[in-house]
Design a protein that fits this description.
By secondary structure, the protein is α/β, with parallel strands linked by helices. It has a single domain (5-284), classed as Carbamate kinase, CATH 3.40.1160.10. The protein contains 9 helices and 14 strands. It has helices at residues 11-14, 25-39, 52-62, 93-119, 146-153, 177-188, 218-224, 240-253, 269-274, and strands spanning 5-9, 45-49, 124-126, 133-135, 140-143, 157-161, 163-167, 171-175, 192-197, 202-203, 212-213, 215-217, 258-263, 281-284. It has an 8-stranded mixed sheet, with helices on both faces. Strands 5-4-7-8 form a 4-stranded mixed sheet. The protein has a two-stranded antiparallel sheet with strand order 10-11. The model is unreliable at 78-88 and 233-237 (pLDDT under 50).
């Protein structure tokens, strides 16, 4: 276990998730300022963010997460007939255009995030997953982490985000920030993962939301997993149940790893979570 923290800013937190392509600029500024305060501690951090109303709207329209109906072979040249699909001349053309649209919208939101981080004085650098990651059946197959490791060693703040990814089996897909964090956790062995969103944590009685669970160990997770709710907005990469399940899979693999799911909607909550205060729902072995 190390001091490294993986922090995700959920798409529902930094965008108006029910209004396509709408960033919450004031919230981004607030969150960036809180991250900047933590940054002075000198503890290493990798920041990730979701796509919210940017990527998810286009992804749902085209079904990008599930793959491309006529996938072009990875590494194929312009001489492959399948590659004509990017111009809409084959059955898969519409879906490849959708793939490109999801990429564009995700990168647009990333630009807003990077501008907020820069304004807060953070030495942040975006590392676009589509340029470095190859997937196989919606899981990371290969990822050259040299640039990310170099950024950490240089004292920079690496920023990744949910993105379209070329997939060896499905042609193309989408990997969420949690999908990417899963690979980073296995490779870098962070001490904790913080998932900041709108939801206050895991509710014992979702969707009534009257009894928040402060801590879940793996044995109790097994007993309550069926009752963990889904996301209240469109989320093509999985809701709360998927996030909790993925975190426990990692907690079982990486000794000492903890995760926290909490709301950063209230000013100061992100600072408290970064400082190690108990907030939201803690997940432990």
């Amino acid at each position: 276990m190390t001091e490294l923290t993986l922090l995700k800013l959920g798409g529902s937190l930094i965008t108006d998730k029910d209004t396509p392509y709408t960033p919450r600029l004031d919230k981004l500024k607030e969150l960036a300022d809180e991250i900047a305060s933590f940054w002075t501690s000198g503890r290493p951090l990798i920041l990730g963010h979701g796509s919210g109303s940017f990527g998810h709207a286009a992804a749902k329209e085209y079904g990008t997460r599930d793959g491309i109906p006529t996938p072009a072979p990875l590494g194929a040249s312009r001489h492959f007939p399948q590659m004509r699909s990017i111009w809409g001349k084959t059955e898969g053309g519409r879906y490849w255009k959708g793939f490109a649209e999801v990429w564009f919208q995700a990168s647009q939101l990333n630009r807003f995030v990077m501008e907020a981080l820069r304004a807060a004085g953070l030495p942040a650098i975006a590392l676009a997953p589509v340029s470095a990651v190859t997937a196989h059946e919606i899981r990371v197959a290969r990822w050259d982490l040299t640039p990310l490791r170099s950024a950490l060693a240089a004292g920079l703040l690496p920023v990744i985000y949910g993105d379209v990814i070329f997939d060896e089996k499905r042609g193309g897909t989408i990997l969420s920030t949690e999908d990417l964090f899963a690979h980073l956790t296995r490779e870098l062995r962070p001490g904790r993962i913080l998932l900041a969103g709108l939801e206050e944590g895991v509710w014992e009685d979702f969707p009534a939301r009257t009894r928040l669970v402060s801590e879940i160990g793996f044995p109790s997770y097994e007993a309550m997993r069926a009752g963990i709710g889904a996301s209240s907005s469109v989320d093509v990469t999985g809701g709360m149940a998927a996030k909790v399940g993925q975190m426990f899979e990692l907690i079982q693999e990486v000794p000492g790893l903890t995760a926290s799911i909490f709301s950063a909607e209230e000013a100061g909550n992100l600072s408290r979570a970064l400082a190690g205060e108990a907030i939201g729902t803690a997940l432990r072995a």
